[in-house]
Amino acid sequence: MEHKPVYYSEYLELERILNSQHPVSFQEGNTPAHDEMLFIVIHQAYELWFKQILFEVQSVIDIMEKPEINDNSSELQFVVHRLQRVSTILMLLVQQIEILDTMTPMDFLDFRDMLRPASGFQSIQFKILEAKLGLAFEQRHGKAYYTSQLTPADVEIIKKVESQPSLVQLLNKWLERMPFFDDKEIWKNFAGGSFWDEYKTIYENSLGEGEKLNAKAFQSVIFGDDSGEYRALSPKASRAALFIILYRGHPMLELPFQFLNTLIQIDNQLGNWRSKHVNMVRRMIGTRTGTGGSTGAGYLQGAMDKHYIYRELSQLHSFLIDRRRLPQLPQKLIEKLGYKFC
Amino acid sequence: MEHKPVYYSEYLELERILNSQHPVSFQEGNTPAHDEMLFIVIHQAYELWFKQILFEVQSVIDIMEKPEINDNSSELQFVVHRLQRVSTILMLLVQQIEILDTMTPMDFLDFRDMLRPASGFQSIQFKILEAKLGLAFEQRHGKAYYTSQLTPADVEIIKKVESQPSLVQLLNKWLERMPFFDDKEIWKNFAGGSFWDEYKTIYENSLGEGEKLNAKAFQSVIFGDDSGEYRALSPKASRAALFIILYRGHPMLELPFQFLNTLIQIDNQLGNWRSKHVNMVRRMIGTRTGTGGSTGAGYLQGAMDKHYIYRELSQLHSFLIDRRRLPQLPQKLIEKLGYKFC
Amino acid sequence: MEHKPVYYSEYLELERILNSQHPVSFQEGNTPAHDEMLFIVIHQAYELWFKQILFEVQSVIDIMEKPEINDNSSELQFVVHRLQRVSTILMLLVQQIEILDTMTPMDFLDFRDMLRPASGFQSIQFKILEAKLGLAFEQRHGKAYYTSQLTPADVEIIKKVESQPSLVQLLNKWLERMPFFDDKEIWKNFAGGSFWDEYKTIYENSLGEGEKLNAKAFQSVIFGDDSGEYRALSPKASRAALFIILYRGHPMLELPFQFLNTLIQIDNQLGNWRSKHVNMVRRMIGTRTGTGGSTGAGYLQGAMDKHYIYRELSQLHSFLIDRRRLPQLPQKLIEKLGYKFC
Amino acid sequence: MEHKPVYYSEYLELERILNSQHPVSFQEGNTPAHDEMLFIVIHQAYELWFKQILFEVQSVIDIMEKPEINDNSSELQFVVHRLQRVSTILMLLVQQIEILDTMTPMDFLDFRDMLRPASGFQSIQFKILEAKLGLAFEQRHGKAYYTSQLTPADVEIIKKVESQPSLVQLLNKWLERMPFFDDKEIWKNFAGGSFWDEYKTIYENSLGEGEKLNAKAFQSVIFGDDSGEYRALSPKASRAALFIILYRGHPMLELPFQFLNTLIQIDNQLGNWRSKHVNMVRRMIGTRTGTGGSTGAGYLQGAMDKHYIYRELSQLHSFLIDRRRLPQLPQKLIEKLGYKFC
Fold this sequence. Notes:
Four copies of one chain form a homotetramer.
Chain A: H1 8-11, H2 14-17, H3 36-65, H4 75-100, H5 105-112, H6 124-133, H7 143-148, H8 152-163, H9 167-176, H10 184-187, H11 195-206, H12 212-223, H13 235-246, H14 251-285, H15 297-306, H16 311-315, H17 331-336
Helix pairs in contact in A: 3-4, 3-6, 3-9, 4-14, 6-8, 9-13, 12-13, 14-15
């Protein structure tokens, strides 16, 4: 495998990367605002990482889109490993806001007006990420405002992503495919006859006085007595997910559990990011409008409450029962969930 | 200065510290839940740090309570340095939640019921901290719920703290004392006659079309045309704070600026902590009630929006104008704000 | 399951935890040094976390000490999950040093002399942790110094831990037990006859001109042509570990891979901790001796280079070949390494 | 101030930033290695931040190069604030290594050979940063190796930076300019006659039995009985720095203290970065040579021990005496070190 010798700066295309910072305030006729450089660099760093996150998420989608995932290949390992990497990156991005916190509001004012109407809101990559993870247009906070801030070309790009299968949809399909419950052979000698009927009884008995609402929610989510509200996960998929969480101790459920768990983590980190972002904006411009004319903290606050894409997964944690009361699985199933070796 | 030789473990009283973990689930008759140890240790670590934070905040209050702070002593240095330490500690406490995130909801269920009705809500030290920083009882989210969860003795303790001067009150007094504006000698040749009248004009001219509300807010906060809403900082104090933020470049205003800035930081970190806490609770118990019977994430969400104690400081950032338009201070004042040496 | 109502502060034994801070400088006759409280609290927080880490490591040792680990139970999951928790905690402990960095050297001097000869070096829990992880007495930096600083009782405690099976020893045994290579049935149609002979050839061909030493190291580590130096892992165990790293894509090797990987991580974090600790000590007391009379930074520097307990695992990374050249495993083995289900 | 409307993606030149990632393994004829994208992006993020750090450090050098810094302007505030920002960025860069840790050694091998002989060692910006901070060519670890790895053009660039005044040199000049000690008027009624003679006596009395070496070092550093070893700070500058550390409580010394303290912090963070880097390299390629043919961990280890640029500042901490024994400053000096206002 012969190849041309590689030089660090060429390989990283530093010529371009390091010559793409042109503060407006440094242009002739303006007063240079020292902190505008930081403002540009930190946003470029964010966008670089968003590119990486999108690269990882897309590779996960590519795997999940296959007609069938081979459980004995390393495909699911890749899915989990790459989503965990996304989570690690998001942790850094939350931390990275500390650097912007070294810019004072007065320092920001030195160049803020020159940037109008640009706004972090216009980060297409971030919007694409939300769409790929599964945020549907209808679920977005401030829909009208949202489209008004972007160029038509950019709206088009996001619309296209929204029309493709999102990770949450692929997750739903993958969960629905879980074959354990359709196999009558496995369950035929099962004490309760049906696993979920038995589970329901145990769950309801575990509820305290004032927890009637939980029983109702269980019925709706797990059995699908429809509440009419939008749900990304079908009852069938929800049952599979709950089963994975309950019985992750069995080898074959470990990676699926990590998969679900990492999605919840990613959701939470996006939440932490939004919360820290709100605080930063509030500190930076008080209650005034952002550079894009948005009501700044207001929009972010709204997004913070609505944009939990995997809340249906964390909601399942309301339906857990403790290990001591878990229905004992049929021996046949236990074996199937193990490694072949032993 | 002779003294008895000190041994590490005795000095740190490790005998006590390391023998104060007695998981309920480890008691005879119960099934040991491995993760209960972590649950205890992490809460103890939080409480240890709360003790340290209270120690720092109290020392700051002690300084601020003096009839007069000597600007040429190191008193204000201490104030700033110790609050910055509080901020550094809070950053760690936010990070520390990552450790609890290694406990899964199923692991928590193994011992959760045994702890009822205990709840992190019952952390007296955290409530005392909020009170010392300046959260008044009337400003608290869920007042009734709040008192119902604590023992009468603990309610008493917090009430007592609430009756003592809080840091925000002492800040108000300290800001009001600022002598620059009462000294007619300084301002007599000032272009605008009155600094704040001139400032108001410049500020209003800086506002865009749709920003009428900001002009109104400015009038209310800076001049005190009363809006009737609760405010911890008087117009006089708000003017002093705004002045500090605007003219921090002068030596004598640097530490006061750091003081204000650090209070905003502490507020934001408490906000980050609450946000991460909400996420953690949501993940851990879904939408069910917490061990203390609280609606869990619900209460925290409410507190998150209401418990910004220093929001009046960050609100001042709405009233900034950029450096190029700042009124030029009288030469006499500039000198007074400098060091004597030069 | 009826139980006595639990109250937060009683459950956490806060009465004891929060009343175990008695700064020497606060005693009658001394001048209170404000920062001594921080000094005590941060060390207590470290010790609390060390207790938790020891609890996790001991639980891992307990599992690993069983005559046979059932691969189809969740035992290995527990091992990996708990070691990952240790790693998460260590990450926090590294970060925690930032808090001590808010204490200036002058602030430390205010009480430093009163603590003599106490020293962080006397943390028994940290020494026990090193011993449990596998640091043998003979491998310790500064052996004589080491014992001279501790009370005979404490030396006794550590000696006892050192005499018990350490995690690295249990790892060695567990790796040696790996049955794949002894099963002639599996390998009989294998291209190269012996897997390791074929691997060796490929590896040596992958080496560049100046890498003769790597070939020699490979021979010594993997085949055991003895170099005479101390090694915790036998050639048999090293082969198993290398195999796991190379073929982790197969389901049954995923958790073993995480196991090895987490041990390397823990090692690195202990290294980061020591490095940050050296810097802190260097900043705090320059080149003077520590409170315990140690040469401070000197000892830590020495430990930093020598106390990599799992360096033999990371050393295996020198012996990797890229996936394209990996010997193709026999089909029979591939099946055995998969889940039974499919 | 009219201006063309700004759009987020154009302002940040994202067209260029986000299209500068071209993994070699993705080229026709090669097997795409998924993780090469991460490898490129993380290095680009590092280089972006290095650009920002250099921008801040250069702006500090520009201020320090002025014939005279006006203490009553905000110049020193800028110096401190910007260096603190550098320190905050470095903290993130240390953390950022965690992301690269999600790449396994096997994943790296998938593309490692294609990059030869590129190496992180060839980061010109990092070398320039070291030079600007004050690392002289003669003080570098592995000088010959160092030049051999770079293109002549790059060596030229660094040589040029090395020939310009570095921050440590400017610091030395600035410290030497400190006028307090030359003003006989101030000291004429001083108890000890000469401040430093009195200080020396107190310091020597504070030393324990075995600390003779400290007395000798004090003599050499503070009075300049030359030891022959290279020193960036003259005795005069060292005295000024020590004075600042001892008497920082006086208003005029607060910013200078922060200046020195932040330089030590930056040094330590570069140390932490190198240490974490060593661990990462060790884990990634074991004891084999890096992509640039360097002995990898070996070089970094050497640099780690030698490249402490501000060690002379932390060494001063060996010469502190506690506050209770500090010589009382003349009243006249105390006043001069205060604000004019009071």
